[in-house]
Amino acid sequence: MENRGIVQLNRHMAEACTALAILAAVIILFIHSLSLPPSPMRGYPGPAFIPQIILAYTGLFTVFWLIGLAWSRLRPAAADKIDPILDGNRFEFEYSGYFITLATVLAFVIGLDHLGFETTCFAITFLLLYPRVRSLATALLAAMATTLTIYVVFALMLSVSIPLAFLPSYIAF
Amino acid sequence: MEALFDSLLPAILLVLSPTNIMIMVAGVVVGTILGALPGFGAAQALALMFPFTFMMSPEAGALFFISIYAAAEYGGSIPAILIRTPGSTAAAITLLDGYPMARQGKASRALKISLYTGVVGSLASSFIFLFAASGLAWVGLQFGPSEMFAVGVFGLSMIGSFFGNSPVKGFVATGIGLFLATIGSSGFAGLRFTFGLESLMEGLPLIVVIVGLMAMPEAFSLMMARKSDTPPDMDTLGKSDPEKNHVGWKVMKKLSPTMLRATLIGTAIGTIPGPGATVASIVAYNEERRASKHPEKFGTGLDEGVAAPETANNAIVAGSLIPSLALGLPGSGAIAVLLGLLISKGVVPGPLLFQRDGLLVMSVFVGLIVSALLMLVVGMVGVRVFALIALIPRYMLGPFVLILLTMGVFAEQTYTPHIVMAVLLGGFAFWLEKIQVPVIPIVLAFVMGPIVESNLNRAMVIHGGDLSFMLTRPITMGLLLVAFVTVVLAFRRSRKTRRSGSRPATA
Predict the structure, then answer these.
(1) What CA–CA distances, in Å, run from B69 to B19, B75, B277, B389?
(2) pTM
(3) Is B419 in contact with A109 (Cβ distance < 8 A)?
């Protein structure tokens, strides 16, 4: 069931997949922790000691989580009792918005390194605002104002070393 | 304690300096505005404002954050009362009686009660903070590394138990936070879990974790907001009846038992790592209803129904500072951000803080009082204006919040991989919230992880690597037993709640 970049997901399945992914990560990290160097001095537990306890603890509770999910799946009546109308067993996940947000930030990072702050901030703010306000002038003005405000606050007031292309030539205190 | 009071006068002078007053006024305004925005609680507001503390001294930064924290707890109630849209989860309880009052033409009365009782809660709990925190710090000073390790484990058991609707998920989240804290340098024993990535060698910076896990999910949510989303209910904004809206001494006197009970409840719950403002509001409201001669009238627009949760959720600010500053145990997401600020400024929270940084502790105490008074002034002047903030469409806010957060993360070390880390953590946290895994335990465990590890390491070095100290030192063993009992009780409570078919409150 899909609607404009939104997908309906089964909560139990989503939880089970997440728990399995966490468990897999825990196992991989635990194996990796075995290659960490031993303790450099007597009494000191070494760099792997605490991470191994943490990973074992996380793994144990993740297994409990999975068992709980399997148990509630075997007893659907009980599952209904846990999440009545409040939660339901399905939830909406807007994957398009999710990936747009991730892509926006990654584009900002690349733009910041290659184009400089002004062009990147202006372009990204404009591209995000235009579909929302549906007015070219408003989106342009808002993007310009945002870029200038961030420049003034971060670069001029907080003295943050932002990769700038041209603004300091025009606005500086 | 004596040394602490020696710092009182310098602290008063410091807090009342024009610069710090301006910083606190800015904090109160920003906190109220962000608190009034649905989805933005105190923790998110603090995470968003973190970059603005870079140029501040530890004292000024702490004052700024305290003002934001207190004001955000109050700000959440404004849209709850006026437009039936709680700015924070704690304010959802205020809505129960606040909104019916507004519908009866008593919006101004509800807002005034919310403001005045919130200020009283803040002031009263500030004094409790001073005496309880210095007492707890004295106890903390008698503790060695093994006891402090046990205190940390106890704190983690509380955090895992109280957040979200399932203790199992809370404990998994705690484990994730503890693991994230181990990434990078392990002191003198080399690097851990960096996988050859230069950007991980110094570990995950606190600001990246705080912004990524606490503020970024809200940015994701705002980016997904649509124009067609249900607008807030604005029916009551224009309604007002001056006669019914007067709140004088008589009303405040009538509400004083309510405020006393709620202050004690809020402060006490604040000292426990985990439950947070929402639980404090619920407990205070329920206790008030239990103590009332007319419990059936709650939910219809009673003064006490607004006063109890508002006093409690403001009293929690000072309450949660008690274990945070005295023992280094953050009790809530907002306090974790505050501790993050202090740690980033080289201040180490814990028992020694009261000896080494008496001025900072006293500044926090005086700051709590001054911020409460500033909140009163700002609240009285701008309450209606702040309510309008909640009317800004959510779908318009997304791009601005996202850009601001991105720049905030970048600003600390001007290192672009930190932005990537923050957005990846944000994406992960957003997903976890979707499947109802609480995210705040990850942040709290991330803050507490190094404290627990360093104390365990010290204790093991002292005892020659022998772990039996956990069984031979009575306080250590006692605290570890209490931690174990806390975990068992959390599961029992969860089972009981499941059987009764209701859900425990989420913090």
Answers:
(1) 19, 10, 11, 18
(2) 0.80
(3) yes
Considering only CB atoms, B427 lies closest to which of A37, A98, A125, namely A98
3-state secondary structure of A125: helix
B299-302, long-range: CB within 8 Å, 24+ apart, which pairs? B299/B96, B299/B97, B299/B100, B300/B97, B300/B100, B301/B97, B301/B100, B301/B101, B301/B103, B301/B104, B301/B106, B301/B110, B302/B97
Q: Taking CB atoms and an 8 Å cutoff, what residues of chain A touch B465?
A: 39, 42-45
Point out which residues pair with A91 in neighbouring strands. Answer: A9
* ipTM confidence: 0.90
Place of tokens 């274990």: B323
∠ CA A164-A165-A168, rounded to 5°:
70
d(CA B112, CA A166) in angstroms, rounded, equals 50
Q: Tell me whether residues B419 and A84 touch, CB distance under 8 A.
A: no
Pick from B269, B265, B273: which is nearest to B311 by CA?
B265
Q: What is the mean pLDDT of residues B325-347?
A: 82
Instruction: Single out the residue of B146, B122, B107, B177 nearest to residue B425, CA to CA.
Output: B177
Task: Provide the 8-state DSSP code for B347.
Answer: -
The C-alpha atoms of residue B418 and residue B435 are separated, in whole angstroms, by 26
A86 band by pLDDT with thresholds 50, 70 and 90:
very low
The residue that leads in pLDDT, A21 or B506, is: A21
Per-residue confidence at A105, pLDDT binned at 50, 70, 90? very high
Q: What is the 3-state secondary structure (H, E, C) of B184-234?
A: EECHHHCEECCCCCHHHCCCCCHHHHHHHHHHHHHHHHHHHCCCCCCCCCC
B77 closest CA partner among B52, B56, B54, B102: B102
Do the Cβ atoms of A78 and B498 come within 8 Å?
yes
- By CB neighbour count within 10 A (0-12 exposed, 13-18 middle, 19+ buried), where does B85 fall? buried
pLDDT in tens, B463-503: 887 888 888 888 889 989 988 998 888 888 877 777 765 54
Backbone angles phi, psi at B184, to 5 degrees: 100, -150
B38 vs B428 pLDDT, higher one: B428
Q: How far apart are CA B339 and CA B333, in angstroms?
A: 10
